[in-house]
Design brief:
mainly alpha; two-stranded antiparallel sheet; transmembrane helix; elongated
């Protein structure tokens, strides 16, 4: 459902009038990230259900890359949603210009994307394929356990 709704949303947001506003740029980023995330989520579900025996051989793609991109798109959607909310408050309460320079929005968006990529490095490193605890011959992606000497909660 989200995929079907995001396609017309992206088409609408790409109109010149909307794209020329700073809110439009945030909403385009939000919709594209949401669409990519939903497609990858569908792909991950299909692979887990129907191609599970190949999961151990392709754990780099399935457990690390796709999980990292899913986490990245989720966090990007949350943060751009927060930026949209903040900008709406600024417009409503402080008469902030809706048509101000998009240069700042593009710079903020690029910095946000770089920050989300940096934050997700641990996601990429930590995920691995493991045997399902109760279903034989099934593999799952799980986060790698920290060695005891790195576990700060045990100290």
């Amino acid at each position: 459902m989200a995929t079907i709704c995001n396609l017309p949303t992206i088409e609408t947001l790409l109109q010149k009038k909307i794209r020329s506003t700073s809110l439009g740029v945030y909403l385009i980023i939000f919709s594209v990230a949401s669409l990519i995330g939903m497609i990858l989520l569908y792909f991950r579900i299909i692979v887990t259900l129907f191609f599970n025996e190949e999961l151990d051989k392709n754990s780099l793609i399935h457990c690390r890359i796709i999980t990292t991109i899913l986490n990245f798109t989720f966090m990007l959607c949350v943060w751009t949603g927060a930026f949209v909310s903040i900008e709406r408050v600024l417009i409503q309460l402080y008469k902030y210009s809706l048509y101000r320079s998009r240069k700042y929005v593009v710079v903020i968006s690029v910095l946000l994307i770089l920050l989300m990529a940096a934050v997700n490095i641990t996601t990429f490193i930590g995920w691995q394929s493991a045997a399902h605890p109760s279903v034989p011959n099934m593999r799952l992606c799980k986060f790698r356990q920290l060695p005891a000497y790195l576990n700060i909660f045990e100290m």
